[in-house]
Design brief:
It contains ten helices and two strands; from the N terminus they run ααααββαααααα. The protein has helices spanning about 1-10, 10-15, 20-35, 50-65, 80-90, 95-110, 115-125, 140-150, 155-160, 165-175, and strands spanning about 70, 75-80. It has a two-stranded antiparallel sheet with strand order 1-2. The chain is elongated, with a radius of gyration of 20 Å. The model is unreliable at about 180-185 (pLDDT under 50).
Length: about 190
Amino acid sequence: MKLGNACYYSVQNLLYSSLLSKKLKIKIYSTIILPVVLYGCETWSLTLREERCLRVFENRVLRRVFGPKRDEVTGEWRKLHNEELSDWYSLPNIVGVVKLRRMRWAGHVARMVEGREVHRVLMGKREGKRPMGRLRCRWEDNNKLDLQEVGGTCGEWMELVQDRDRWRALVSTVMNLRVPKMRRIS
């Protein structure tokens, strides 16, 4: 996230500029800032707090791109609400992109030959005793939750991956999911 913020602040003067169109500013965001923020997201195991941070970052950039809105009743300028931002921004939201990439990567890795290192890491079981406390959310758990959201069965996802057409359909369904509204996390 630090590199994403650094990238955002390096092009901030372009996003402030009134000489550039909103379409061009969106292009700057999607080609310069977003790849830096999402580097390696295929392997992320996101918690709700991390998803919220990603959405907050994206909304901050989009507010910079679209600027303030004049209230028709009072005539005062105000910030755009999150719903307005999602309506104006036609591309998928950042959490949806992370889920899409994670699901595509899961399918790719699950279809690999069993001897490959990446496949062994995905399928392998950790040895030894686990640390005390609550279990951490694992990458595979996130994939299973994404499958449950679209109505897939999480128990047989490894068999489901082998049918590429069905898997692609599920991945595109995950992409089209609306991210739930932000809620306060204390």
